[in-house]
Each structure stands twice: as structure tokens, then as C-alpha cells.
Write a structure and sequence with these properties.
By secondary structure, this protein is α/β, with parallel strands linked by helices. The chain has one domain: 3-Layer(aba) Sandwich (Rossmann fold). The protein is 41% helix and 18% strand. It has an eight-stranded mixed sheet, sandwiched between helices. Keywords: Hydrolase.
Length: 267
């Protein structure tokens, strides 16, 4: 474990294994702690790096009440890979982390050798997904206004349902709740799925993403997540989709992910 200074913030970074670099980017709310088991398995297939994104749990934000944007997260990921000598890396991003990974590959193609997008949180593809995401954001913002410390819980309940939240072990609920500060910063920022002004791609922008890409979707996830995944898959030069069982918290070390990473490394 290490603390790495990038772009004015200190990131908590964990490294496991050896070989071709693999970078894991968690969703919102989350942290590298919630990827620990998956990171151990990913480390059997390469040099696995995971980190708490700025403002989340063990990483700092620029300031206590900072607004965090997609630009910030992309710049942090690129700087992290450069500082630790892990370019290019196969980047695995879940949910919001998938959107960050996609934009990282678009802006910094030299930093990304392959992409794994686990239900990437891009909800600006059509009117229906935009309406669904706007409603989710309003519900989360309303809950956070009542109790800021429950912002992360509100995201979880909206994305996976009340029963999923209450069914979590107490330790897992505490781990998610610790990410509330990062949630609030993203609500105040731009470009992310929880932002008032989320990222919206125009025709041709994703042509710059040339990395081999696996887009993974869970069968029980809300329909907007399926549509977003299909939309992205159709617009990337070298992408395929794989469906798995379960809900939105797709295992970053699912067998389909490991097989893709191994095939990419062999190639």
C-alpha cells in the first residue's frame, strides 16, 4: 500500500502481483477496500493496481467541500499510471469507474492497452436514460440534503434497491457509508453520472478509443444500464459484450473478465 501524490491530492494505492499492468477503478460509492478480494484474483493475471479515487475514504480531495469532475478523475488515473510506471495498462472500471476508464482511453490512448467496462455509467445516450438518471440524481440529492452522511447509502439504494442495502453485512454498509464525501463532491461536479451536467458524447468522439474492449452487463440490472452498454459497444472500434448473472455490482474478477485479460496479455 502507498500514498501517491497526484494533481494536488493524495491517493491511497494498493499493488498486488506482477506482470502486465491492470488498473482497477471503483464505482460510486466504493473504494479499493471493496475490491480487495477481486484484486487478489486479478493479481494472478498481472500487476494489479487499485486505488481510492479522490475524495473517497482513504484518499484526499482538493479541499473538504471540493466539487469533483470527470476531468479530475481522468487526470488522476493518467498521473497515477505514469508515476508508478504502469503504462499501458488494462483498465477495469465498474459503473462510474467504467465511465472514467472509457474517457481515460479516449484522452490518453497511450495509457490504456485494453478496457473492461462493467456496466459503465453513461446515461446521456437517449431521452429515456437521461430521465432515469435525472430522477436517480434527484432522489440521491434529496436524501443527502437531509443527512450528508447517508449520501452513499442513498446511491446504493437507488442503484440496487432497499433490500440489497439492508441485506448487506454491517461491515459492508459501513464501508460504503464511508464514501459519502466522494458522493457529495461528485454531485457538485461536472461530467459524471451523478453530476448535474453529465458527459454526453457526440458523433465520432469514441472513434478515438482503439483499445480492445469488453463490456459486461448483469442480467438483473435496470434496463438503462443494458441500453448504455449496448450503445457503447456499438460505437467502439474493437468491442464485444458479455452478459453475466446477478446485479450491478459485477465482480471485477469474473471469469469472463479474467479470460479477456489473459487473451489480451497473450496477444
Amino acid at each position: 500500500m502507498a500514498r501517491i501524490r497526484v494533481n494536488g491530492v493524495d491517493l491511497h494505492v494498493e499493488e498486488r502481483g506482477a506482470g502486465a499492468p491492470i488498473l482497477g477503478i471503483h464505482g460510486t460509492p466504493s473504494s479499493a477496500a471493496l475490491w480487495a478480494d477481486a484484486a487478489e484474483r486479478l493479481a494472478g493475471h498481472g500487476r494489479c493496481l487499485t486505488y481510492d479515487r479522490r475524495g473517497f475514504v482513504r484518499s484526499t480531495g482538493a479541499e473538504a467541500d471540493a466539487a469533483t469532475s470527470l476531468d479530475d478523475h481522468v487526470a488522476d488515473a493518467a498521473a497515477l499510471l505514469e508515476q508508478v510506471g504502469a503504462m499501458p495498462a488494462a483498465v477495469v472500471g465498474r459503473s462510474t469507474g467504467g465511465l472514467i476508464a472509457l474517457e481515460l482511453a479516449r484522452r490518453h490512448p497511450e495509457a490504456v492497452s485494453a478496457l473492461v467496462l462493467l456496466e459503465p455509467a453513461l446515461f446521456t445516450i437517449d431521452a429515456a436514460t437521461r430521465a432515469w438518471a435525472a430522477d436517480a440524481r434527484d432522489r440521491i440529492a434529496a436524501a443527502a440534503a437531509v443527512d450528508p452522511d447517508r449520501a452513499a447509502e442513498a446511491v446504493f439504494r437507488v442503484a440496487l434497491g432497499d433490500d440489497a442495502w439492508t441485506g448487506l453485512p454491517a461491515g459492508a454498509r459501513d464501508a460504503f457509508a464511508a464514501a459519502s464525501g466522494g458522493v457529495l463532491a461528485e454531485l457538485a461536479g461536472d461530467g459524471l453520472d451523478l453530476s448535474a451536467h453529465p458527459r454526453r458524447y457526440v458523433a465520432g468522439e469514441l472513434d478515438a478509443v482503439r483499445s480492445p474492449t469488453l463490456v459486461v452487463v448483469a442480467d438483473a440490472s435496470p434496463e438503462p444500464l443494458h441500453r448504455a452498454a449496448e450503445w457503447i459497444t456499438d460505437r467502439l472500434v474493437d468491442a464485444r459484450r458479455s452478459d453475466v448473472a446477478g446485479g450491478h455490482l459485477i465482480d471485477p474478477a469474473d471469469p469472463v473478465v479474467l479470460a479477456f485479460l489473459d487473451a489480451h496479455a497473450a496477444a
